[in-house]
Amino acid sequence: RRDTCKGRSLVATRHVKAGSVVVSSHPVVSCVYFSQVANTCARCLRRGSLVQCGACNMFGYCDVGCRTADVHHVAECAAIPRLVARLRMLGDHVWHNGDALHNALLAARVLRSRPTPQDAVARLASPFADKPLAFKALLETPRLAIPIAIAKALLSVAGECPELLPLGSWRCLASSHSTDLEVVVSVLVQQQVNACCIQEAGLFDSVGEGIFLQCSLINHSCEPNCQFMYWWGDGLPVQYVLAIEDVLPGQELTVSYGDTARPVWDRRAKLERSHWFRCHCSRCEWESTQFGLLQPAVLAKVSDRDGRVLRALIAATAGDAEAAESAVGAFQAAGATFAPESIDRRVRNAVVEFSSLQRSVMGPEGNAGRIVALEKAQCALREIQAVVHEESLLLYDVRTAVACMAEAAQRWDVATEVAKVLSLTVQSLYHRFHPRQCIARESYAHALRSLGRTEAAAAEKEEAAALRRWLQISPGTVPAESTQKADCRAGAANSSSSSATEAGTVVSEGAGVALDVPPSSTDLVVSWKVVLRDGSATATIHVPSGVSAAHDVTVDVAPNCIRLACRGVEIESEPPFTVDPESAKVVARK
User: Fold this and answer.
1) Where is the composition biased (Low complexity) (predicted)?
2) Distances (CA, A) of 90 to 86, 106, 150
3) Do the Cβ atoms of 238 and 230 come closer than 8 Å?
4) 3-state SS, residue 60
């Protein structure tokens, strides 16, 4: 759908259930982050043992297949050492831990993939698509200083290594009024808007960036109904769009480009810097009004325990002094009550003290030094905790840092205590499918296990594992639309009799059936009857209300046994089924 204000968008053509995969897309181009090249394949972006390229000594590959298939590296290999040297000469503010190299290579790949102005990549959203004069004027401002520096370095190296930017592959994009520099800078800005961080499936860490054409049509909202996830399958990463709530036919699909837990002034400022637009979603518009600013959900993030606004907390959530002052002015106009300067000063001093301790905790002082720093950090945390609102974002950030410090100091009692609070906080801040739900639960489980509380750790780990398995499932095996009714799909591989007759019943040896059970507000009971040539067996699966993640239930019928695998839900079975508590599988033998 095309809108005069928002441009293109994707809308649902049917009712989409929460937990369903809506659409998936392969990257047109992708590139590993420079910080991840030591253990991430330059083509498929999987982590593991690599064989380094002997020519550039920078990028590595997981196998010969990936090395051979990486057509981009053929054009880039000789140019990379020159490009690194040229970018490093520009200073740390441009190089920025290798981000400049990553951006330059991704831009070069985009340009090499664009033979005509009408191709798919050229139609990607750009903040200056219809504003050539505004773009030319912006070239003279500090806002584009770093992209211009990267573009100049890229063009300079391309002059020495023509294969990096073959002339015919992109020069046709330049109009009679555009220079080579303007074209390259426009691509750098375009990829800043459209490129997505690709998260490694195991740790949800970002390993690189890619441009996914179909998914790039999905617009931003601070109240999204979808989120991006990644699955590797057999080759390149696949970006898929997971519905995090029910979506009605005709409703626009949206994702969040940032952290939805941040306050409105911070969300808007970050989007303006990263994506060149000011968010006008319904949530931002409401939270910017005088009534919206004073709502408990907004006010609590920057107030003390009595609900009085703390300037120190606004400063901590704003990108710069100007943004902080603007937010303070908005609260003043709304009639908010501000905390006394003495309390503000108390919070500022505690934050400064904590920041210095956090910087030193990973230093060379050894574990004794880390323990001392941790104890001082706990004092700073208590000082902040005594003043600010329990839902303050500063408190969440400080607790996160304290948990990391406690783990570094191997003080598992402290790590466990703080991780438990953080896990509960994450559940209140983010939706049930958010990767941070996994991370918080796994951190808590790790602390519990290190403290020796293995039973509690196992329970917490299983909660995280159930959600993780769901988030990492192949898009090809996730139904396009989950339903409350059993979704039964049967295959008759090596079958000598009929296939499935009704949901939950298999009458074929060698057939497989998969059932998707979505989250529900009520208890669900699913009964399976598996019929073999000379007998049958039935298992009943109870899915309790409030389950936070969808679960897969799979029945495989083999000549000698039936296996029913269930993720994270209670299983009751009738003979001849038996339950293996270790694997959570129900096994029946003839």
Assistant:
1) 490-503
2) 7, 19, 9
3) yes
4) strand
- The two structure tokens encoding residue 329: 């002015």
Tell me which H or E stretch contains 197: strand 196-199
Q: Is 501 helix (H, G, I), strand (E, B) or coil?
A: coil
d(CA 240, CA 576): 40
Which two three-digit tokens encode residue 87?
Answer: 């970018």
The H-assigned helical ranges of 239-365 are: 264-275, 282-287, 290-293, 296-299, 311-317, 321-333, 341-360
Q: What's residue 197's pLDDT?
A: 87
Cα gap 485→488, rounded to integer Å: 9
Say which DSSP state 5 is in.
T
Residue with tokens 């990549």: 121
pLDDT tens-digit series, residues 181-220: 888 888 888 888 888 888 875 556 789 999 988 788 899 9
Q: Which residues have C-beta within 8 Å of that of residue 44, sequence separation ≥ 6?
A: 62, 66, 232, 235, 236, 237
- Would you tell me how many other CB atoms lie within 10 Å of the CB of residue 545? 10
Sequence letter at residue 457: A
Report DSSP state, residue 127: T
Q: Identify the bridge partners of residue 586 per DSSP, sorted by sequence position.
A: 564, 579
Averaged pLDDT score across all residues of the chain: 76
pLDDT of residue 342: 93
Place of tokens 């992109």: 170
Those residues with Cβ within 8 angstroms of residue 410's Cβ, 6 or more apart along the chain or in another chain: 367, 450
Q: Which residues of 442-453 are buried (b: 16+ CB within 10 A; e: fewer)?
A: bbbbbbbbbbeb
Kindly report the CA angle at 583 between 581 and 588, in degrees rounded to 5?
80
Summarised one tens digit per residue, pLDDT across range 212-228 is 887 888 999 999 999 99
Q: Are strands 238-243 and 21-25 parallel, antiparallel or unpaired?
A: antiparallel
Cα dist from 1 to 82, 219, 243, whole Å: 44, 11, 19
CA distances (Å), 299 to each of 119, 279, 280, 294, in order? Answer: 47, 20, 20, 6
Indicate the pTM of the whole model.
0.73
Nearest-angstrom CA–CA distance, 43 and 68: 10
**Is a pLDDT exceeding 60 seen at residue 570?**
no
Token duo for residue 123: 């139609």
CA–CA separation, 128 and 276 (whole Å): 9
Query: What helix, strand, coil percent values describe the chain, rounded to 5?
Result: 45, 20, 35
DSSP assigned state of 564: E
d(CA 408, CA 403): 9
158 pLDDT more than 60: yes
Asked whether residue 447 carries a pLDDT value surpassing 90, the answer given is yes
In whole angstroms, give the CA distance from residue 361 to residue 363: 6
* Helical packing angle, 393-408 and 366-385, nearest 10°: 160
User: d(Cα 158, Cα 153) in Å, to the nearest integer?
Assistant: 8
Which pLDDT belongs to residue 168? 59
Dist. CA 55–CA 52, nearest whole Å: 9
Main-chain dihedrals φ then ψ at residue 490, nearest 5 degrees: -120, 140
The answer to whether residues 17 and 242 touch, using CB atoms and an 8 Å cutoff, is no
Q: Tokens 């783990």 label which residue?
A: 407
Place of tokens 């979808």: 226
